[in-house]
Amino acid sequence: MQYKKSIIASTFAFIVAASCCWLPALVIAIGGGTTLLGISNGIEQLSGVFMSLGVGLLGLGMYQYNKKNKAVNKELILQSSISCPGCGHSKKEIMPTNSCLFYYSCENCNRRLKPLEGDCCVFCSYGTVACPPIQLNQNCC
Question: In the chain, pLDDT over 90 holds for what percent of residues?
Fold first, then answer.
């Protein structure tokens, strides 16, 4: 959900960039003096920088959003063959889409498999196909 952060940051940058228009009116409306209007003049000189930053962050957010949608439309592979590192026995299993499988018992030698360091589940460690969240470029569990 990085795209949401980019869109929020770009909105903030656009609001700051346009402050030369709305800040003087706000200061006058709340009864501020002319010294506070000098702040608006200083920000106005940097409005081009803030506008560029806003456009860049908005573009980044749109890119991340499109990348996320492409991953969601990707067809998931739900079947994976888990191979026991102890005895070499292999079995095809259907991966759950709503949870991770942290432990798996080999049918041949009863060895209890756990994910390797850095992997989120036994399918990522011992399977032929990574788990569904990893296939979708999402955080696993």
Answer: 28
**Of 138, 122, 141, 136, nearest in space to 80 by CA:** 122
* Phi and psi at residue 2, to the nearest 5°: -65, -30
Q: How far is CA 79 from CA 8, 76, 103, in A?
A: 38, 9, 17
Q: What is the largest CA-CA distance in the chain?
A: 83
pTM for the full predicted model: 0.48
Question: Mean pLDDT: which of 19-33, 97-111, 127-141 is highest?
Answer: 97-111
pLDDT over threshold 70, residue 76: yes
Residue 113 pLDDT greater than 70, yes or no: yes
> DSSP H helical segments within 1-141, as ranges?
2-17, 19-29, 34-45, 47-73, 122-126, 132-135
CA-CA distances (angstroms) from residue 102 to 109, 116, 123, 135, 137? 18, 10, 9, 17, 19
Q: Please, is 25 exposed, middle or buried when counting C-beta atoms within 10 Å of its C-beta (0-12, 13-18, 19+)?
A: exposed
Residues with Cβ < 8 Å from 88, sequence gap 6 or more? Answer: none
